[in-house]
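hey so i finally got around to running the thing on that chain from the lab meeting. sorry it took forever, my laptop kept dying and i had to restart like 3 times. anyway pasting the input first so we r on the same page abt which one it is
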Amino acid sequence: MNDAVPEHQDVSRRSVLWTAGAAGAGLGLGAFGGTAEAAEQPEGRAAEGTAAKEPPRQGRTMIGVPFQRRSTVRVALIGLGNRGAAMAELYLAVPGVQVVALCDPVKAKAERVAAKVTAAGQPAPAVYVHGDHDYEQLLRRGDVDFAHVATPWDSHFEIAKSALLNGVHVGVECPAALQLDQLWALVDLSERTRRHCMQLENCCYGRNEMRVLRMAHAGKFGDLLHGAGAYNHDLRSLMFDPAYYEGPWRRLWHTRLRGDLYPNHGFGPVANYMDLNRGDRAVSIVSVGSPSLGLSRYREANMPAGDPSWKESYIGSDRTISLVQTARGRVIRLEHDVSTPHPYSRINSLGGTKGLFEDYPERIYIEPDHKNDEWGDFSAYAEWDHWLWKEHANPPGAHGGMDYMLVFRLMQCMRLGLVPDFDVYDAATWTSPVPLSHLSIKQRGLPQQIPDFTRGEWRTSRPGMDSEKPADA
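ok and heres what got predicted. didnt touch it at all, straight out
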């Protein structure tokens, strides 16, 4: 194993239940993208060294590397809680996919999903339920083509690392990792092992997102100038519900980091509109955050005395707002708020020299179609739907069908031997606001450099989400 890859860490999915510090005590700031010294710089001093020069490449780029063609994709699911169990049903709905292995330390969860596999007419999958690291045994099987990771965030990096080292393509739920050194390690491992490591960003496959993508690439918005994305979703009741999340692992992140904990849903689609890593790239981020009051107020109103949550001190900003600058001068606004009452919104906005689109609610204003400062009807642009949505107008599954589109397209790329729609460089870029927004807020809004995970190859235009329908699909 190369010395550049961090050594094994204990990332027990249950260990996070017992480690809530008063204010993220013991968290080494250096691991989150800068140095402790930089994080405590006085106001007004320039941020220095917040993103080290990219390390030397250890392998060859994974840009443009296709999957090996195969008639059947053998899938393993690691983590079978709410998300993993739901995704299992979608893999079973896609032709040419076999679910061969399942892993979760809660045996009952694995057994429930295994029953769904056999009910779908597939052979009984192997089940791995012996502790938090039994995924290591699963990934050594030798008959797994793709691993889907849907575990608590702490474990994402180690599981993805293990998959790559065992020659398994891997997809990780958001976020891909939590530290810049981990993101670089995933880039290096993907390049060395010649296996893809992808952020399973379902929002990129939303119908509106894919329509806006095709319109943007066709020039309907003119030269692109700005965009916005968010994860503004009131999760207070769910984060305090031990039956929804396995313990308080998600809530505890609000005792540790001040920044945007979940940027991918908003960042991914806008990055696709602007062809980030495909002719443009994100170069810096500035973040500010509100006081942290929402979770404590909810606890006061709803949690009984003696509940373990009363030992927690929340430092995570109730709302973070970040501005990302790209190499071409464009601006992307990101927001995160899961701690206050508000309707759901991912914002999903894109503007250019000919007009703009805004979601939640969906509306459009582009010249010469619209005038007099009156919004137009976005449904009138259904002709711009991506071919995936024209073929699968009513897909199964949650989130309006975007989950199914993600699984269908990924499995199609693997079966037909195509280049995936996004890669490890996108995963690293879309996740980098997690550590960098924390540092920017700690430094009173000082800019943080976003690493060039492509090592200069972003300058070359290449295909992405705006794919053509395969001839042999």
